Amino acid sequence: MRKIRSDALWHKLSPEQQKKIERWFFDEHLSYRVVRERLRTDFGVTCALSAIGPMYRHCKELRSRERDATLDRLTEILTDPRSDLRRIPTDSVATITACLMHRAIVQDDPKTVAALANVIMQGQSHEIQRDHKKLAEEKLAFRRLQFAVSSGAIGSKEILMQLGDTIRQAQAPLSDTKSPKPGLYRINRDKK
Predict the structure, then answer these.
(1) pLDDT in tens, 172-188
(2) Domain segments of the chain: what residues?
């Protein structure tokens, strides 16, 4: 990166003004001409159009450094063996880790790639453990119902209610997926 000159306009601006200019470039996506006009109207600073380009490149480099530092820190957190990622949704961890893994591959950093792959595997392992636990709970509920029926502890009406509750609980994860509900598909198809 070429350093911005020490006597450049950028260094004469306050930190608040510098942040505002950065927002003009990257949040509002203003052209050099518009930024130069805003410098004149908002800050009372006149400058040549050629002075805006180095400001833009300097802001871009600063943002790039900040982004890289944030991504490095995120990678450290994810790959730290002491990090407890079980409370974070598996899909979120997988998405973040995949992005960081792509970055590590581009940077040719096999150690980080391996650590991030391990994070993905741990997340999938936790998800499998949750699924096994849920399945065991459903199996226990069904066995309890089976025992109650065989012992005559509940009548046919209660059996149907309990069975309906068990079926609804078993189907709960299916409703969390993004697949359309059968009735909605038919209604939407009919509207076309």
Answers:
(1) 654 444 444 443 333 33
(2) 1-71, 123-177
Cα angle: 98, vertex 81, 64; to 5 degrees? 45
Angle between helices 90-106 and 110-151 (to 10 degrees): 160
Token match 């409370």: residue? 87
Q: What is the pTM of this model?
A: 0.48
3-state secondary structure 7-26: CCHHHHCCHHHHHHHHHHHH
Spatial separation of the C-alpha atoms in residues 154 and 177, rounded to whole Å: 34
CA proximity to 163, closest of 148, 177, 184, 142 = 142
**What is the rounded distance in angstroms from the CA atom of residue 42 to the CA atom of residue 174?**
55
